[in-house]
Amino acid sequence: MAEKLKEKAEKMTIDAMGKMVEEENKRQQKAEAKRWTPIDPAVSLTDALSRLTKDELTAIRVRLDIKGASSLKKADLIEKLAEALMQDIPQLLQAFDEKSYSLVKELAEQDGCGAAGKWRRAMVDSMCKLGIVFTGTVNGKESLVMPAELAAVVREADSADLSAVVKRNTEWCRLTNGMLLYYGSLRIEDLKQLLAKYTGKAVEATEIVRILTFNADQYSYVMDNDGFSNIEALDAGVLEEHDKRQDLSFYPFTKPQLLRAGEAGFIERNEAYRTFAAFLATYYDMDQAEAIEISNACVIGMQAGDSLQQLVEFLGESLEMDENSMRMVVDRLVPFMNGTPLWTLKGYAPTELSAKSNAAPLAAPVRAAGSSNVVSFQTGKKIGRNEPCPCGSGKKFKKCCGA
What we know:
single chain; mainly alpha; Arc Repressor Mutant, subunit A; 3 domains; three-stranded antiparallel β-sheet; 17 helices
């Protein structure tokens, strides 16, 4: 009886979750359909704002810090927002990076209308949330529209001084994005010092925070309680690991390296990465895209602190491995791990730190399926469960890679 009740409860839970997913999908489809309803390319600002929902208008009101307007009717709120947006544009543009500014500048120079497909969805969404760009179809094509009043203000604001500020903002964002790809997380003070080092100019912490948070939707970082983190590094305890290594400076990447790493979608594909991905593609006869996807997942696991054993188990879910193929995978996974810059090591790869300290890099203990014999590939000797783990964590093997 109890078992039947349990099965019934589980079925009800699954059905309820399925219904929630279905309703959310319908809501998103409805919102997407509304997003691309026909729009007049010569639409006025007030008419464009009237296309938005009350929640969307409220979000713009909050951003503009308009007081005492929460009880206004929609038409009255739109009038206030239109007036405030016209005044806000010159100051708003001072926070843009180059890609965002190029979007609004191009629309302003094209009589306020352009093709939507040219721009990344995240950027379009960001501009729409600001209340300065609107979506719709023009002659059956998905388009972006900037009301003529706003376009005129953008054209008037365009100047060499504004271009210099936008260029500076872009450099800050890309350098930060690149640093967080390698360092994982940075406190505000550390970020301030590093940006000053790489730009050669003193920077204000409040200005850094303002620019980085404004442009966060375009990059892979987020602001948290202690500073900024790569989005994959949230809750990974990176800063605590940094604190344990206060005598270790952040790896001295060059400015071009960080700017390159700061580009959207960048993955560090060093020699160790390429060797591992090539092995997967060749040995398992998979296409390059799948090999890269698996290799990228391994990098994220390494950065999150996964042990060799955990990575082997992850790969075992995607790859067919007997004892021989497991050994081949591990033989290539160990140098991959040793050659990958890690957040916890402040951007150093284990081999680089071992070269600095004369310590051995990662050993490779792994248990083959069905085997209880665990051997260090570094020493060739069997590792006892109560012995120190050869990965260097300081824990007993049974509580680390042998868990």
